[in-house]
Amino acid sequence: MAARRAVRGGTSPESSSEITSGQTHIRSAKPTLPKKQKALSLQLSARGQWSMWPAFAAGQTVLRNHKPCSAPEERTCSNEQALLTIPKPRHLEQLESYLRKELQTLDLTKGISQELKLQPYREIFEFFIDNFKTYKPLLSAIKNEYEATLEKAVKGEDVVKLTLALKMARQDLTKAQVKLNAMTAEYGDVVPRRRFESLEKKYSDLLQEMKTLRKDFDQLHEEYGTLLEIHRETAEERDSFFTRLQEAERSHTPRPNWAKCSEVIPGGAERWDRLAKGKSSHQLVDVLLEEIGTGVLKEMNVFRGWGKGNKVPVHLRYEGEVKNKKPTKKDVVNILKDIWKEKTALDQQTGKRSSLPEFFLSYLQKKYGDASAVEWSYTLSEYMRLCPSNHVMSSFYEILTGKVAEEQYHSQNQLISDLQKELAAYDSYSSGSLPSEQFRMALREAFPLKRRDAIQELVDASTFSLDSDDDFIDYISLFKEDEEGNPEPFVAKLRSQYVSEKQEYLQELKNSLGDVTEVDADDLKAAFCRIDPEISDQTLDAYIGLAYQVRREQPDQEVVPVDTILERLCVGDVRRVGPSPRKESTTDFEGE
């Protein structure tokens, strides 16, 4: 307002001094009139009024150049020419010059604020207000309204700061928009973290549930396979029983009263009960035939010799009559056991297995002399032939006559010996008895290739003689024999299973060979490997050597009939080494 006071001074000298004294204050806040402009207020007309150029100039021209007799067109043309010749008032030129210099001082190219630019115009406008007395109230009111309006986008605010803030805000907005566009392009398909964590937890729960269901499914699948195999076995047993039932219906006869045999058997009912214990009707017929045969044999005094031909066994080569020594079954069994004992000791000493027929004759000659050796040879042979139910006599006779290889006898004895050791290992107190469940576990451990039904048969045979519901099994008594060498039903069942398993193994071999009638060694090896993949090379060579009657170092490529091969293998100790690939699940034990 100092500038305003300076202008208001008009033509007085004091006003000029006020301009000079307040100029410093005005420069600090707003641009003011320079010192050389302080005489601006004195540039009035001679009468003390403002020049009215160009209106005043036009009036002066009319007064000076008026020609009353001239036409209107001429007067107009002369007036325009006069205006062009009259100069601009000096005071107006000073004001315009002042404005130009002030604006140049501000240097508008450097972005000066609008308020600083407005200051020169404000000062000139205030000068006009102070000098036009007549219009001063109206012009002041107009100025005040404009000032009031402006003091309402900027009151209390720094325009520079606001402008800078607006500029920075616009820059930040641009950066934010660019960043937002980039993030929208890059993460348009990305889910929020909360959503991701929720989905991840849901996925983890579903994965765990799937694993649990998979485990349950695998277990159910395994159980289903087991049940399916049990169903298959049950169906096979059902068909077998149905077939046997049909055969029995076609040829059924009333079951004989075997107790009547005790009336004619030496020893009476007690001996017959001992002989008939655990035997089927078919086996009882054999027992009855043995009693009849041995009864007739005891009545014979002499045997007729078979001659001395090459086809006659070495221990029976004799011509003429041979005296019957008439021993008891007990005597025969004891002699045969002693022969086995002596022969086993000799074989271990020499490291090779001797021929049983030759050793049999040499043993009798050594013990009874040459004369009685033939008598004992014929007598023992006849007793063995007539007593197939007695294991000691029947097994010795089959090996003596070449129907069975000696390896079978030793193999069966080894199985029994291994089982006794396994049972003793489970008997931690050496009490001689085991709970039925531990007894079953020992059987599984000793015979890993037996099926569940075979294990159950052995368990049933072990409890055959139990008179109570006691859960303990006296396993030591299962391996005892009577005075005639007859074993308990448990050992008899174990030996019968050995024979049946061997026959089943050879039947699988025959099925693997197919419809061929002859086979060479390579094809036979392949068939063995198909039905018994775990068979060792040593065992396979032994089986091939037995089938083709050759040694391991003498391979033979001749073609042999399948029936002949099966007969030769049936003589030897041929059995399964590993589980069958076709019936692998059937070897699983009950409860596993």
Write a concise keyword list for the protein shown above.
disordered C terminus, rod-shaped, about 600 residues, disordered N terminus, mainly alpha, two-stranded antiparallel ribbon
Number of strands: 6
Biggest pleated sheet: 2 strands, antiparallel
The number of helical segments is 22
Mean of the pLDDT scores?
80
End-to-end gap: 112 Å
Oligomeric state of this protein: single chain
Low-confidence stretches: 1-50, 55-71, 584-592
How do the SSEs run, as a string of H and E?
HHHHHHHHHHHHEEHHHHEHHEHEHHEH
Instruction: Please state the overall shape, judged from the principal axes of the Cα atoms.
Output: rod-shaped
- Roughly how many Å is the radius of gyration? 68 Å
Biggest sheet: strands side by side, in what order?
1-2
Structural class: mainly alpha
Count of folded domains: 4
Which band does the percent of strand residues land in?
Answer: under 5%
Percent of residues in helical segments?
55-70%
Characterization of this structure:
By secondary structure, the protein is an all-alpha fold. The protein folds into four domains: about 1-50 and about 90-155, no CATH class; about 195-250; about 260-390, no CATH class; about 410-585, no CATH class. The protein has helices at about 1-10, 15-20, 25-30, 55-65, 70-85, 90-105, 115-130, 135-150, 160-185, 195-250, 270-275, 280-300, 330-350, 355-385, 390-400, 405-425, 435-445, 450-460, 490-515, 520-530, 535-550, 560-570; strands spanning about 300-305, 320-325, 435, 470-475, 520, 560. A two-stranded antiparallel sheet has the order 1-2. Strands 3-4 form a two-stranded antiparallel ribbon. The two termini are about 110 Å apart.
